[in-house]
Amino acid sequence: MATEAELMARYCDGDASAFRELHARVAPRIVGYLARMSGDRALAEDLAQQTFLKVHRARSAYVRGADPVPWMFAIAHRTFLDEVRRRKRSRVEVAKSEHGVPEQPAAIDGAPADAAPAGADPELVQAALAALDQLPPAQREAVILTKLSGKSIAEAAAITGASPGAVKLRAHRGYLALRKALAALAGGSTP
Amino acid sequence: MSDPLDQKLEESLGALGASPDATPALGPELEREMAELAPVKTRVPARQLAGILALSLLYATGVVALIGLRRDLVAMPRWHFVSFAALWLVSFVAIGWLVLVPARGQMMPRARLSAVVAGCAGVLLIGGGLLLPRSAPGLSTVYRPTVSEVIVHAGCFPWGLLGSVLPMLLATMALRGSVPVGSRLTAAALGASGGALGGLVLQFHCPITERFHVGLVHGGLVIVAALVAVLAAQAGASNRGARTGGGQG
Prior knowledge:
The complex is a heterodimer of chains A (191) and B (249).
Chain A: H1 4-12, H2 16-38, H3 41-57, H4 69-89, H5 122-134, H6 137-148, H7 153-160, H8 164-186
Chain B: H1 4-17, H2 28-35, H3 45-67, H4 78-100, H5 111-131, H6 147-152, H7 157-174, H8 183-205, H9 211-218, H10 220-244
């Protein structure tokens, strides 16, 4: 199977099928990231479209052999922040968790995308999602990137433009906050 | 991670992360542009760096030729003059390399590292100018080190800024599209790199060897050029933001 770097190189050489394969691989992850950040699936899809339009227009910035995914995530991150600022200017909230129940992401078959897979307690998953939405934005993005999107600290730092130390600290604090929030529900104890 | 609560939390986060997300549609604008997809020339950072260094050094030589060599050049202590010229040059090249050439396997600039190195270079160049003044007696200009004198003799500063313009512009063009985040740090490093070339121009042009002049005016060029670049990046982002509803990285 071709790597993302190989697909990106072929895409830059004018291979549209390589772009579609790259999009199919990366776009769901980017939508997932944006949906967790914004709490709004429709907005996430819209921002993902903008992200890929920007990727397309900036594809000549690609360095052959490099992994394009962190760069794509960074563009998605930038696009999200720009949207937050734009909405702040027009006084519309992006994250809705403080004012209501976050919109449920849905898979293509219409089933809720956040439905817990076998093995995970659905109640806890929903509680984790709710607790995640309550985190400060910087902690939320650190937890989403490192725990949900599977990025390393260095990758998350490159995507957000923060220092690795700051991302590590935010992810740790966010994790502790989630743990505390879930402790009440699970009846567990915090150290 | 042996705590059951940690295990449950990890499972829950893993479940959230593993949620199936359907591939979203491309969007009409992108579909239109994809219909006319053409091959593009991708970025080759090392080649860009070599080109920018060569053009910038030619440009700096031209600026020095235009504004004239310092009258005390041949009479200056050679080791001192060469060491400082080398320090300016190394700062210009090293910061430029860090900004333009990403780490292996990456395509975004090493914004934070290059900004830190730029800061260190600024401190070194300002400190070096303040602490290690040397002059050619009878040929160099040395004045009374008062604030007003430093300001009066800062006329070489615009020439230094002029010397820093081309590398900043070339590097900005080279990095187009590569800096979705960390643009302020990247701009600061680009400015500092250009400022170091401007300082090199002044090293060959300005005969004033008074320590505060060399430290604060010549050395300070690195900091001022960095600030100018950050402000320019911010202004550019604000303009884009006003047009597109976006903002600044």
